Design the sequence.
């Protein structure tokens, strides 16, 4: 069980699926399908998570204390079905922040070596 | 239906959500394109479900194994000590059983002094000791003909036929190799004495063989230039040379202690590994998959 004072660095490096799920929850809480859509949108369709991968990831994130369940409610954009929403915990925010900084450092190194062109990461 | 591949606890927690997501994906696929999009979504989702279901099943089985080990009423120390003791008792038991099952062998020894005509080197007037002379005489003592005559004299064929054959009688060419395995002639260093050793399960027979072989050699040398004198007759042994029970048991005890310690160490490491599998940063790290 992750505690509030757990060191985020111990969770790094994150798998791509985990990182994108956490990223999807940074700005707002979402339900499962919305997370899936957000990941596909963020990556330009390069990462398409199936329900099995998505909820396997959500399960592990819940167990690690990086996300938590929010109040269930219908999504007005979809249908009237009641859906479970998820949000980042304090630890989850620190972890996704730490991973982002790690990626930023890597990008800096790649840029200094002239590896980065003008195209986007998922192009 | 595909959700049935998942463990029950997982299905109960996430099953409904997964169905919702799947339905939403299908609706989106229908809205984007016709049947091909729907088929593609279904195929991809099914493959994803099968793969992740296998993973969840495996994870659930591993957790149950860890829980079983963790919930064992005995502590890690008890397991370690218990396994160590069990290993030690096993080795000691095997040692004792082997010792008890071994056929005892009694050894008897006769001593023969050899007097060479030319002195210890076989050369008149020389006092130099030549070990090869005595070594040669040792081979003469245990030569085939000598053994054959001793076997006949002691009726070893009939004795050993009852022991080794269900029916029939051993013949001399068969008895001599058996006898040769039971005798040893050793020159004693820096002396002119040959030690004639014989083993048998019966102490009387062992003594008889040693004495008969020594006497046979003495009688062979009677007419020659080398004389031999039986200076020490073999006596039946009071205790068997083999198995050496005190030695076997003490060796077995030492081995048992070593084996027990080894098993205890492995048990300690194994229980620590099994119980530690769920801890740590968890499966979030890329390196842990």
Sequence:
């Amino acid at each position: 069980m992750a505690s509030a004072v757990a060191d985020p660095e111990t969770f790094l490096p994150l798998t791509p699926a985990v990182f994108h799920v956490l990223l999807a929850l940074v700005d707002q809480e979402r339900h499962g399908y919305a997370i899936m859509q957000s990941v596909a949108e963020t990556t330009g369709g390069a990462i398409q998570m199936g329900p099995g991968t998505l909820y396997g990831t959500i399960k592990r994130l819940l167990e690690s204390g990086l996300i938590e369940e929010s109040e269930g409610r219908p999504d007005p954009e979809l249908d009237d079905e009641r859906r479970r929403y998820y949000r980042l915990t304090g630890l989850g925010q620190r972890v996704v922040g730490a991973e982002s900084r790690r990626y930023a450092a890597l990008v800096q190194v790649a840029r200094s070596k002239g590896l980065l062109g003008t195209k986007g990461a998922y192009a | 239906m595909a959700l049935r591949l998942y463990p029950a606890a997982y299905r109960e927690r996430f099953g409904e959500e997964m169905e919702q997501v799947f339905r939403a994906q299908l609706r989106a696929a229908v809205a984007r394109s016709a049947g091909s999009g729907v088929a593609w979504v279904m195929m991809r989702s099914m493959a994803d479900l099968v793969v992740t279901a296998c993973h969840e099943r495996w994870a659930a089985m591993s957790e149950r194994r860890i829980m079983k080990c963790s919930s064992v009423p005995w502590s890690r120390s008890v397991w370690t000590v218990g396994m160590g003791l069990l290993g030690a008792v096993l080795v000691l038991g095997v040692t004792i059983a082997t010792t008890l099952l071994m056929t005892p062998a009694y050894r008897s020894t006769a001593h023969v002094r050899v007097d060479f005509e030319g002195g210890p080197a076989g050369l008149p007037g020389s006092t130099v000791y030549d070990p090869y002379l005595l070594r040669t005489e040792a081979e003469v003592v245990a030569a085939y003909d000598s053994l054959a005559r001793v076997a006949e004299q002691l009726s070893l064929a009939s004795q050993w036929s009852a022991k080794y054959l269900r029916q029939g009688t051993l013949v001399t060419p068969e008895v001599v190799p058996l006898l040769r395995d039971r005798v040893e002639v050793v020159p004693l260093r820096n002396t002119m004495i040959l030690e004639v050793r014989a083993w048998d399960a019966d102490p009387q027979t062992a003594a008889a063989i040693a004495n008969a072989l020594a006497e046979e050699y003495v009688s062979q040398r009677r007419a020659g230039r080398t004389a031999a004198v039986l200076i020490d007759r073999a006596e039946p042994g009071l205790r068997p040379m083999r198995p050496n029970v005190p030695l076997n048991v003490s060796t077995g005890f030492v081995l048992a202690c070593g084996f027990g310690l080894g098993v205890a160490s492995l048990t300690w490491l194994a229980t620590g590994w099994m119980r530690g599998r769920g801890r740590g940063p968890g499966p979030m790290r890329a390196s842990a998959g």
About this structure: The mean pLDDT of chain B is 83. Chain B touches chain A at residues 10, 13-14, 17-18, 20-22, 24-25, 44-45, 47-53, 55-56, 281-287, 289 (CB under 8 Å). The CA atoms of residues 185 and 196 of chain B lie 5 Å apart.
